[in-house]
Every structure is written in structure tokens, then in C-alpha cells.
Amino acid sequence: MRKFAKISAVLAAMVLALAFVGCKSDDDSDDAKPIQAIVINGDVVTLYDDGTVIIKASDGTTSNGTYTKADGKIVIKDSKGNTTEAKSTPDGKVDTSEPVTIKDKDGNETKTEVKETVIETNEGNGTSSTKNILAGKTYYSIEFEKKEYTSELTNKVKIRVSMLAFDSNGQKVKFTGLKYDFKNGAVDEKKNNIIESGEYDYSVSGSTLTVKADEGNDLIATINSDGSIKDNEGSVMKEFKGNLYAIAEATADSKRLLAKAHIVIVNGASCTYENRIFKSSANPQEDSEVVDGTVSGNTLTLGSGGETLSGSLSDEKIVFVDEDGTLTLRRM
User: Fold this and answer.
1) Of 128, 197, 212, 258, which is least surrounded by CB within 10 A?
2) 281 CB contacts (<8 Å, ≥6 apart)?
3) Pairing between strand 317-322 and 325-331?
4) Are 145 and 301 in contact (CB under 8 A)?
């Protein structure tokens, strides 16, 4: 696993705190409200009063977007960079009496008809069904909470791998977290790749995600137009499909602290390895890399050509063996 450190270019680290820094939710009266639902080329686009949109495609998938109003026009932008320009009515809605202009990210323009439709609601309570934007989706993040190095005997690092799995009913979210603490050259055995989980209620209003946390402190995050989740400090959690396996490790000597977090996402016959690495030296560095691979039976192979690494896969763990030893990632 460690020999892939030179394969990929360094990628920007994308993280989300284990808890979104406890913030209490605003009163429901401040939640974004749907103001109009329109149909464009078979896609249902719901506009909210906070400038966000939810797009339900004809194939049933959903995504986020935004819109702006200016000069008598409404411009809707989806997560792929496409825009839809429409005439605005006096009350700030899309004028469905005239065609809209769709411009793709390459600048190509087409005109198409638009019509208004009924805003979908959840049965029983009459509220807008915005929860469906996250229903059935799973997200992850890798975070180095603390990174301190003075000497071989004075150092500290806390590594967290977090996962949020939203149920298909849009009501519950399961949080799973891996904890790894390393201090003064030794691993804290109580937090040596310990995996814990819990289930919570959640709600979505417009682009705001609220997770009902313990002790009455709601956790707040923003759903970005590209589908990622961002906390109030700007850290980001990415969506993935499949099963996630993870492990963290650290060492310290007289020259530096070296900390690593490894994950592998297995999705059918494909897989992806990702790591984050912190090196404390004269110039502390944080690196990351991604390596794609394949799965055949119980064998997982990372890389291609002459630079590959194989491991054994089971439902509970992935085991890699190379010249540096054995690395075992456990399923979260």
C-alpha cells in the first residue's frame, strides 16, 4: 500500500469534522420554503426562497443547484455547470408562458418549453419533500484533528474517518466513525482504530442539513450544488457508492511524525484506494493520493501495468501484504 505514495499527484484534502461543531438549529420559520416547481425537458426543478433549487431528473435521480434573479430574468445553474435562463414574473417566479434558454458548459444553446407543476409534498404532513435529495446516499471524510510534533517523545496526532449513511426513507442517518489517537510516540489503545456508530434523525430544508444530535445540540451543514456536504467551517464530505474500509497509523522518530489514513471503497467490480498523509519536518506537509483498482472474487488489485498491489477481500476486512508488512483495513 505504501509504495503508491509516488503514483498520483497530490490532491486537495477534503474533510468533515466528526461533529459539525455543535450549532443549534434555527426556528422552523427560518427554513427555506419552496416557491415554485417547473418541468424542463422532463426534469422537475423546485425553486426555494433561499436561492437554491432541487432538480429531480426524469430517471428519478436528484441533484442540487442555485438560481439568481436580475434584470427581469431568472438564471438556474445545476451541479454540472449548465444554466437555464428564463423570464421572471413580477412576483419573482419563472414565467412559463415563454420558452427558456438552456446553455451547456461548452456554451451551446437550445430553447425549450417550460411548464409549471405541483410542488411535491410528503404524505401526512404536507411539507416539501426535500429530504429525498440525501435519501439513500452515503458520504465520507478523512480528517487529521490534531497534528503536533516537538520531538520523538513529544508529539500528537488524532485521525478520524467519518461516514454518514442516509436511509432510503429520508428519516434517519447512521454515523460511523473510526478513531485513532497517537501521543508521545505510542498509540492510545482505547482509540486504536476503534469504530463506533450511532443513528440520528435528520431533516433537509433547501440546502441546509440538520442532524438531531444528542443533548439537544443540532448539527448543521450545507448541501453544495455538486452534492457534497460542507460544515460551517468549510470542511467537505464526499458522496460515494459501495462499502468503505479504513485504517489509520502513525510513527514518530527523532526527525519527524508520520501519520497516515488509508481507505478503500469497493463498489462491485471496481475499487478506489485513497490516503491522506501528514509529515512533520522542517516544512510540515499534508499529501493525498487516489489509486483506482479492480475486484475479482476475493482479490482486490490496485494500480495498472507494472505497478500493482493485490489484497484479499472479505465482507469484514481487506488485507494487503507488501515489503513493508501487512496492512488490514476494516469495513466501516
Assistant:
1) 197
2) 255, 256
3) antiparallel
4) no
175/275 same-domain check: yes
- Three-point CA angle 105, 42, 93, nearest 5°: 75
Return the closest-CA partner of residue 302 out of 330, 327, 332, 278: 327
Q: Quote the CA–CA distance of 69 and 72 in Å, as a whole number.
A: 7
153: CB partners within 8 A, 6+ apart: 184, 185
Read off the C-alpha cell for 225. 450544488
First to last CA, the chain: 19
The parent domain of residue 96 ranges over 34-127
CB within 8 Å of 217: residues ≥ 6 apart: 22, 23, 24
Say if 121 falls within a structural domain: yes
SS3 69: strand
Q: What is the pLDDT of residue 132?
A: 62
Q: How far apart are CA 23 and CA 19, in angstroms?
A: 10
Q: Are residues 108 and 189 in the same domain?
A: no
Mean pLDDT for back-to-back runs of 10 residues, the chain (332 residues)? 32 34 38 87 92 87 90 93 94 94 92 89 44 83 92 95 89 94 95 95 85 79 85 83 97 95 97 95 85 96 89 96 92 96
The domain total for the chain is 2
Instruction: Name the residue among 307, 63, 50, 256 with its Cα closest to residue 151.
Output: 256
Task: Answer yes or no: is 19 within a domain.
Answer: no
Q: Which burial class, exposed, middle or buried, applies to 133 when counting CB atoms under 10 A from its CB (0-12, 13-18, 19+)?
A: buried
Integer Cα distance of 19 and 71 in angstroms: 42
Angstrom distance (rounded) from CA 171 to CA 202: 6
Q: Edge-to-edge, what's the strand order for the sheet holding 114-117?
A: 109-112, 100-103, 83-87, 73-78, 62-70, 52-56, 43-48, 34-40, 114-117
